[in-house]
Structures are given as structure tokens and as C-alpha cells.
Write a structure and sequence with these properties.
Number of helices: 16
Radius of gyration: 27 Å
Structural class: alpha/beta
CATH architecture of the largest domain: Alpha-Beta Barrel
Strand content: 15-25%
Shape: globular
Number of strands: 19
Number of domains: 3
Largest sheet: 8 strands, antiparallel
Distance between the termini: 64 Å
CATH topology of the largest domain: TIM Barrel
Length: 604
């Protein structure tokens, strides 16, 4: 018998996973952190091709109806208290006369939450030490290994193979082994050890309430252009969180500055292969970047990107451009430095600073900096600069690498580039290529309609709402859409009164803005942008619900992000939106934020 073989009626010693390769992998867009079981994993579990056993005081019981819960420690006994270095002492009663089960088979053993790299769990936020609390399960996939083990929503996974889990990244990384022993905390405070035997990288089939289980690493910068500083009061609570957590960059695509990384963080990046990261650069000149970030201790970002290169990791970067501050020669230098780091730096996006009247006033009074909107001549000059760098990268690497936001093309009155120049749209969520995607979607839909004309849609009155930036483009496309379908459609650009007229994108419109603009409109259906809602499709930025907005408008509503989705929505009629397939995920739900308020939130 092999030493680690699981045999009913015996106790399987805890062991540390070996032979790991590839590291953690990013989940497909739209997966809640923690993921769901893959289809092939569900099939194998249903067919009985995997073993799920429970370690208790007396035996390892096969999971299923015969299992009887016997906690490994006294009922209600709390989890071990972390020591100052983040490790904790842990003893698991074996019931075999050998004492506590450890790596050597006897006595208490010390486990480190950081795993094989010896990394201690680190304080998150500014509210004092926050020990990892485990990942609370929000749902279990039917037919999965977790369901076979009797895991239910409300249970929390605390550790795998003796390693305390700090977040969904740890879970993905340590659960990738073919045999793991997982510690769960039940709702009543008792604990179970569950042994899973499975295929490598097969998911257990659990989703979690939040992505990080030891708090959120918050921003230590004071950027004069930080959009959060201009937020009015009364919005959804998560919108005020100043996160700067590299784990959320890996899991959700959030942009981070890397200014708060410790050596433990760098060691974890190397061990778990957390890549790609989205990095806010703004300028590669050290002194200028420190001015932009309001952080005189900000490290050299070029050196940090070179360190990522040495670790074999990659990044997508952005420059938030403030005319008169980091444009001109400063921008030229930044683009030279960043494109010179390809392929470590996969993409460089240049995006305009977004400013509400409140932020404009704050920046002017505190820093003497005017946050001006991009004008036509400035936008045209920038596009020419970007195109020069694109040509050089296309010649050297076969990719454009450098992109600028759609807003610059619209401000300049210039056509957006063809799809091939967007390198697969890796920065779509950052406003890079959204217009091109909209145009190409309409081209495909038009070919489809001409091949098979729509039936039963003629005469339907449809109102399409959007931000003022995309209004002219969407109006032109909607006129063509109406001609092909017979729908009586009109576009209503909505001015943003919550953040100010200068904030002109659809995703930052509030429910109140839609009601104010569209209230009393006569329509069979009102189509609103899906991007205006939270992840779950329930609330707008000002916390108004879908039902409240529909009532305020006085017409049925549906949601879409493209004309093909609009076409399907018109055929289907009013409907509740689905959870978004977007990187931000469930982290931004109100219930998923539990870090202290002091020093972490931007107060309205």
C-alpha cells in the first residue's frame, strides 16, 4: 500500500502537495471567485470516478448518506489564534493513540498560512491585524465533489493540506492537486477534515461570498485625479472603497499601482504565478509618478515591471493622461519605456482623466492642476503619437501594444481602428475598443437580418438610452437597425447629473438620470445599458432598483450592451438582467465588503 493511500477505517496523515506546475489560473470572465466545477468534473463526480472521504476523530468516512459528523476537536472550540508572524499552532486529534497528526505522524505541527513559500498572512486594510476567516461558500454546484462531501452554503473552507487560505487565489492554487485534505468550518462552529481525490486542476464545485478572506489591501496613494474623491454621497458602499490589491487585479482585472507590495507579496507572485496583472503606471519618470500618485515613497515602476519580467510574469498597463502634467515628452518617455518591456508589458492604454465638478474643484484648490477634458486638436495629436508607436510595435512584434481610449477618437472626429489593431481587446473594460465592438456587432447582425429578415417586430416602439459620448454613433446605427427590422426606434442620450456633464459614459449613469430623462416616454420597451447596473443586475449607482427605475420611467425596461442584444431583448420583451460576465464580479456587492471604514473609504 502506498503511504498516502486513503483506506476507510484508517486515518490519513495530513500532507503537503508536491509537484505543482503552472500555478493559479485566471477564471473565465464572469465566474464568481472560487469558480464552478468544470463540466467534465461534474461528469466524473456523478459517475463515481472520484473519492471524497472525511477525516474525523475515529475514521475516514466515505462521503454520502452513511457519513456521521464527528468533529476533530471539541464542539464549539474556535480556530487557533494566529501568532504575530501569521502562523498558527494546529493539532488534529487522530483517535489512534498517536496523538495529534502532523507531518511526521505525531505531535502538534506548525502550519504556515503562506504555504510552501513560508509567507505569513499579512494585515489587510488599516483596522489592525485581520486573520484569514476562510472562504464562506455561497453556492455548491449540483453533482460536484463538494456536494458529494456534504458541503452546503454557509460552510467555510479554512485550509488545504495544512495551509490556511487567505483568499480565492490560495484556494485555486492549493486545490489544484489530485489529492487534497480540506478543513471546513460549519455554521455551528464545528470543523470537518475532508479528503478529496480527483483529477489535477478539477474544481470542487464551490462559489464563495467574497474573493479575499483576510480583508482588502487598500491604496496608499493620494492621486489628485482619483475619481473616488469626486463621488457624491449616497452611492453603493463598495464604490467608495480605495482598493489597491494585486489579488483583485489577478482575479477581477482591477488596476493596481504596485506601490504597497512587500517582499512577501513578491514571493507569492513568484510561487503562485499570478499573471497577468493590470498596472496603473501614469508615468515612468520616478519623480513625476510620485507627484501624480501623491506618494513620495512610490517605487520605480520600471524596476518593478522588470522584476515581473525576471519572474516570467506579464502585465497590462495604463496611463491616465492629464494634459499639461504627464503628456508631451513625459508621455513619449513612458511609451518608450513600456513598449521596450514587451512582452512583459503586453499592452499600454492611454485613457483620459475622468473628473466630476467636485474633483475638478478639489484638484484645482489643492494642487493647482486643471483637469481639462480632451479637445479635438489635443485628441488628434495624441492619436498621431499613439499611431507612431503602434507602427513600431507592429513592425517589431506583430502587435500594436499601445492603444488609446475610444473617447479620444470620438473627440477627434476620427474613425476608431479596425478590430485587428486591438490585439484581442484585453483592455475592453478600460474603454479600449468598445466602439469597434459595437460597430462590428451591428455589421454581423445586419448580415444575419438580410439573410433571414426579422418577423413580428415592425411597428414596435423602442427607446434606447445611452451616455452622451456614444450618442451620435449609436443614433446612426439605430437608424440603420430600424430600417432593417421595421422597429420604430429612437436614441435618447442621457446627461449625467450625478457626476456632472463631463462624465459622459453610459456605465456611470444613475437610475435617477434615466428617470429624469425618460420619465413619461411613450414606448413598448425602453432599453438601458447593462453597464449601468451592478454585477448582479439589481441596482444602479444611486442604489435605485430596476423596478424603481421602470416605475419612474413608466414603461417596461430591458437591458443590452449591443444591437444584437437589443434585437433579442425586443423579441423577448421586458426581462430581469443576468449577472454580468465582467471581471469585477461579485466582489462589488454590498455584502462582500467588510473592511474597516477608517482610512479605507473615501468619505462623501
Amino acid at each position: 500500500m502506498e503511504p498516502d493511500q486513503v483506506v476507510p477505517g484508517s486515518v490519513r496523515p495530513e500532507r503537503h502537495a508536491k509537484g505543482r506546475s503552472g500555478g493559479a489560473q485566471r477564471r473565465p470572465a464572469g465566474d464568481v471567485p472560487g469558480g464552478h466545477a468544470q463540466q467534465d468534473g461534474r461528469s466524473r463526480a456523478a459517475a463515481g470516478g472520484n473519492r471524497v472521504d472525511r477525516v474525523t476523530d475515529e475514521h475516514i468516512h466515505p462521503a454520502g448518506s452513511r457519513f456521521q459528523h464527528q468533529p476533530p476537536r471539541e464542539e464549539g472550540q474556535p480556530l487557533p489564534t494566529p501568532h504575530a508572524d501569521g502562523a498558527h499552532w494546529e493539532a488534529v486529534s487522530s483517535g489512534t493513540g498517536r496523538g495529534a497528526v502532523g507531518e511526521a505522524g505525531g505531535g502538534a505541527h506548525r502550519t504556515n498560512p503562506g504555504g510552501a513559500g513560508g509567507l505569513a498572512a499579512r494585515t489587510r486594510g488599516r483596522g489592525g491585524v485581520k486573520a484569514p476567516e476562510g472562504g464562506v461558500v455561497s453556492s455548491v454546484v449540483h453533482g460536484s465533489l463538494a456536494e458529494a462531501a456534504g458541503i452546503v452554503p454557509g460552510d467555510a473552507i479554512v485550509a488545504i493540506d495544512g495551509r490556511t487560505l487567505r483568499d480565492a487565489v490560495d484556494y485555486q492554487f492549493y486545490a489544484a492537486e489530485p489529492e487534497i485534505t480540506a478543513r471546513f468550518r460549519k455554521a455551528d462552529g464545528s470543523e470537518d477534515l475532508v479528503v478529496f481525490e480527483k483529477d489535477p486542476d478539477e474544481d470542487l464545485g464551490m462559489a464563495f461570498e467574497r474573493a479575499t478572506w483576510d480583508g482588502v489591501q487598500v491604496c496608499n496613494n493620494t492621486c489628485f485625479f482619483c475619481f473616488l474623491k469626486g463621488l457624491p454621497k449616497g452611492l453603493r458602499k463598495p464604490l467608495y472603497l480605495k482598493d489597491d490589491d494585486y489579488r483583485l487585479s489577478f482575479l477581477h482585472g482591477n488596476f493596481v499601482t504596485l506601490t504597497n507590495l512587500t517582499e512577501d507579496d513578491w514571493a507569492r507572485l513568484e510561487e503562485q504565478r499570478l499573471s497577468p496583472l493590470n498596472v496603473s503606471v501614469h508615468a515612468t519618470d520616478v519623480d513625476l509618478r510620485r507627484k501624480l500618485l501623491g506618494n513620495e515613497r512610490a517605487p520605480d515602476v520600471v524596476a518593478q515591471l522588470e522584476r515581473l519580467r525576471d519572474l516570467g510574469l506579464v502585465a497590462h498597463t495604463q496611463i491616465v493622461l492629464t494634459p499639461g502634467v504627464n503628456d508631451g515628452e513625459a508621455l513619449e518617455r513612458s511609451l518608450r519605456d513600456l513598449t521596450g518591456l514587451y512582452p512583459t508589458v503586453q499592452t499600454v492604454s492611454v485613457v483620459p482623466v475622468g473628473a466630476s465638478p467636485r474633483l475638478e474643484e478639489w484638484s484645482r484648490d489643492r494642487d493647482g492642476i486643471e483637469l481639462v477634458a480632451p479637445e479635438r486638436d489635443f485628441a488628434r495629436s495624441l492619436i498621431a503619437t499613439i499611431r507612431r508607436f503602434q507602427r513600431a510595435c507592429e513592425e517589431a512584434h506583430g502587435k500594436s501594444v499601445v492603444q488609446c481610449a475610444d473617447e479620444y477618437y470620438l473627440a477627434a472626429g476620427r474613425p476608431v481602428p479596425a478590430a485587428g489593431r486591438y490585439d484581442g481587446f484585453p483592455q475592453y473594460e478600460n474603454g479600449i475598443g468598445m466602439v469597434r465592438t459595437l460597430l462590428d456587432d451591428w455589421s454581423r447582425l445586419r448580415r444575419r437580418l438580410r439573410a433571414a429578415p426579422a418577423a413580428g417586430m415592425a411597428g414596435k416602439r423602442v427607446v434606447i438610452a445611452c451616455g452622451t459620448l456614444i450618442g451620435p454613433t449609436l443614433t446612426r446605427l439605430t437608424e440603420a437597425f430600424a430600417a432593417e427590422t421595421g422597429v420604430v426606434a429612437s436614441v435618447h442620450p442621457v446627461t449625467n447629473t450625478l457626476f456632472g456633464e463631463r462624465v459622459n459614459v453610459s456605465g456611470l449613469l444613475s437610475g435617477g438620470d434615466y428617470v429624469r430623462t425618460l420619465g413619461g416616454v411613450e414606448a413598448d420597451l425602453v432599453l438601458l445599458p447593462r453597464t449601468s447596473l451592478d454585477y448582479f443586475g439589481e441596482r444602479f449607482l444611486d442604489s435605485m432598483t430596476v423596478a424603481e427605475v421602470a416605475e419612474g420611467i413608466g414603461a417596461p425596461v430591458a437591458f443590452a450592451t449591443s444591437l444584437s442584444e437589443a434585437f433579442e431583448a425586443i423579441r423577448a420583451g421586458p426581462h430581469d438582467p443576468e449577472p454580468a460576465a465582467a471581471p469585477n464580479g461579485a466582489f462589488w456587492s454590498d455584502t462582500a465588503i467588510d473592511v474597516p471604514v477608517e482610512g479605507v473609504w473615501v468619505q462623501g
